[in-house]
Amino acid sequence: MSLPPLVEPVDALSDAERIRTARHRSLIPLGEVGQRRLRAAHVAIMGAGGLGSPVVLALAAAGVGTLTVIDDDDVELTNLQRQIVHRLSDVGSPKVASAVRAAADLSPETVVVPVREHLTRENGAELLRGADLVIDGTDTFETRENGAAATEELGVPLVWGSVQGFDAQVTVFWSQPPAGTAAVRLSDVYPPGSVGELPTCAMVGVLGALCIQVGSLLAIEAVKLITGIGEPLLGRMLVIDGLRGRQSEIAIRASTATPRTIPAAPAPAAPIPHVDAIPAGAVVVDVREPFETTQGTIPGARLIPLAQLLEDPGALRGSPPIVVVCQVGVRARRAAQALREAGVEASVLTGGMDAWSSLERSTA
Q1: Within this chain, do residues 172 and 285 fall inside the same structural domain, yes or no?
Q2: Mean pLDDT score, 315-331
Q3: What is the mean pLDDT of the segment spanning 40-63?
Q4: To which H or E segment does residue 38 belong?
Q5: Which of 83-92, 140-149, 346-355 is least confident?
Q6: Statement to judge: residues 319 and 236 lie in one domain
Q7: Residue 293's closest CA among 264, 325, 263?
């Protein structure tokens, strides 16, 4: 169902803005009033990369009055495959500078506030203060958690998207939604400590066109929330399989159960052994998450995500010697430590899947 609009409309649009946004004003139910609400709105965009780039373009074109763009990175040549707000001439320059230029080229009346800072738990609320709505286009889960914490403190909606490989997710989190609407937070989907170490885009790649699609969806959610039209994705998550051209939807709600978290690691009694190859007769246990293992695993490996293994490492007692693997080794060391504490013979594959994949390619 629709939610009340986030902002009151400005009294009037300029003549130039009325002409530029004419196709919006003829949309029902957006219309003239909805366009004036967009003009009054202030949206903060976390990240000017693969997701933030199309968001900046779409919201500037839509006539949003103020965009605060937060990113501390400079443009690199590898960004241009997906970060469409930047140009070849921008390489080496701040990403926020590209955002300012591109928005001005589309909508001279949109004010872009560039913030060249890294958003942290300490400065998040201050950087986002004053925004009616926040869009998360960041690429590390730590920053996502920091942004979520800040929006929960401020009580503003968080439009959230994630892209990796050919897969994506889009939803809306809001800790203080209008009366009669259930709150949903990032921690309801990803409890603290449950995510672990995620691979970067550099590790597994990302489809550039999918970033544009997801950025457009994030912008649409922002427009709906600002103007009070349509059905926002609050309480629903859109899941996109870009490789198969499929979209599905799952319901999300506030968690009432104790979240499954990864307990603190005990101090190891002895160094955890590492191996450079899988010994004969050993069992490989892959502790990555399901979305990672779909990209490939070591043949015959048992797939047990880290949080699940840590719930009962003793369940593997009596098995042959175990070699634990993750993407690069951090989670594998944690798992091997817990297994050895439970009396299970365990070691870690040096370099994880990254090293194993490189070795496979070199011997193919």
Answers
A1: no
A2: 88
A3: 98
A4: helix 31-40
A5: 346-355
A6: no
A7: 325
- Return the amino acid letter for 135: I
Judged against a pLDDT cut of 80, whether residue 1 lies above it is answered with no
The residues annotated with a catalytic role in the active site are 201, 326
Return d(Cα 13, Cα 22) in angstroms, integer. Answer: 11
- CA distances 330 to 107, 117, 284, 288, Å, are 46, 28, 16, 11
Hey, which of 82-86, 191-195, 201-205 has the most confident mean pLDDT? 82-86
- Total domains in the chain come to 2
> What does the DSSP assignment read for 158-225?
EEEEEEEBTEEEEEEEBSSPSTTS--B-HHHHS-TTSS-PPPPHHHH-B-HHHHHHHHHHHHHHHHHH
pTM of the model as a whole: 0.73
Report, as an integer, the average pLDDT of 333-353: 91
Residues 104 and 69 sit within 8 Å (Cβ to Cβ): no
Rounded to whole angstroms, how far apart are CA atoms 31 and 180? 26
- Name the residue range of residue 283's domain: 274-363
Each as own residue / partner, the long-range contacts of residues 335-338 (CB below 8 Å, 24 or more positions apart, any chain) are 335/285, 335/287, 335/306, 335/309, 335/310, 336/272, 337/265, 337/266, 337/268, 337/272, 338/265, 338/309, 338/310, 338/313
